[in-house]
Amino acid sequence: MRRQVAHSRRRADGGQAGRLASSIAAALVALALLAGPGTRDALAAGGDETFRIGLSTDTISITSEFTGARLVVFGALDNADPQILRQQRYDIVVVLMGPRRPVIVRRKERTLGIWINRGSENFNAAPASYALAATRPLADIARAELRGRLSIGVDDIQLSTYAKDAKGRDLPRSPEQPNRDDFATALRRIRQSSGLYDQTIGSVQFVSPTLFRADLQLPANLPVGRHTAQAFLFRNGVFIREDTAPLIVVKTGFEAAISDFAVHNGIVYGLFAVVLAIFTGWFGRLVFKRD
Fold first, then answer.
1. Fewer beta carbons under 10 A from the terminal one: N or C of the chain?
2. Other residues' Cβ atoms within 10 Å of the Cβ of residue 186
3. pLDDT tens, 84-100?
4. Nearest to 93 by CA among 224, 208, 202
């Protein structure tokens, strides 16, 4: 009798467990149906945007007639949120940064009628050139701390790199450099006036819901070397991801041959320049000699 009762209880418990599992499965199916195809697609895609850029050219050749160039950066944004696209809350910032090089900025002051150096500052990684294009004003795209970390904007370019400790943190800056911001501002101002640092707002445009382009105007004194094009994607002011592409700037023609010869044969080039200067002066004296 007891065995029959126990057996009956096990069958009842098993039936309840089966009915509970069936109910949970039915609820999940109903939830999936209510979610609709759009939600299922978003869940499958993970909601992650993909972001790629390309350049109109990967090499710029500088000759004696070079007066500047226009670089077109184009890209594609996939898996974008349609609602955010309609609201135009995706922002893109495109930067072309020249090779980083050490720079010394000196401050001159007039003393007793003579201009002398009264201070200097070393920047060990200042970009030789910098061009930026953005969809909107930078202050509307990202906060100041993020702009500084990503070197977005002329005022937020990182001009130096610092040594790091064992945990990867930046070591403190030297307290003997109280006017560093003044020197950095002067360097940015000098390079902006020469056209090496430039930024334009509104020059990144979406040509379709997923394709965009940016026009960068490069100066005539564009430095040679490896440049890096960077594109940053923001969604509602939040940095999402970035993509990069290289650009090589080289000298070509007779100027390139002279430059290479001067670099690899400095002494010979210097002697030749002195002899050429002497000959030019002597020849000019003969030509313009007065009787």
1. C
2. 15
3. 888 888 999 999 999 99
4. 202
pLDDT band for position 132 (cuts 50, 70, 90): very high
Per the CB < 8 A criterion, the answer to whether 136 and 91 are in contact is yes
List Cβ neighbours of 104 (8 Å cut-off, separation of 6 or more): 120, 121, 122, 123
Nearest to 96 by CA among 50, 53, 64, 61: 53
Residues in a beta bridge with 206: 212
pLDDT digits (tens, 9 = 90+) for 147-164: 988 999 999 998 887 655
Which residues, other chains included, contact 64 with Cβ-Cβ below 8 Å and sequence gap of 6+? Answer: 253, 254, 255
Can you tell me the distance from the alpha carbon of 43 to that of 26, in angstroms, rounded to the nearest whole number? 20
253 secondary structure, DSSP code: S
Dist. CA 2–CA 111, nearest whole Å: 113
**pLDDT attached to residue 34:** 34
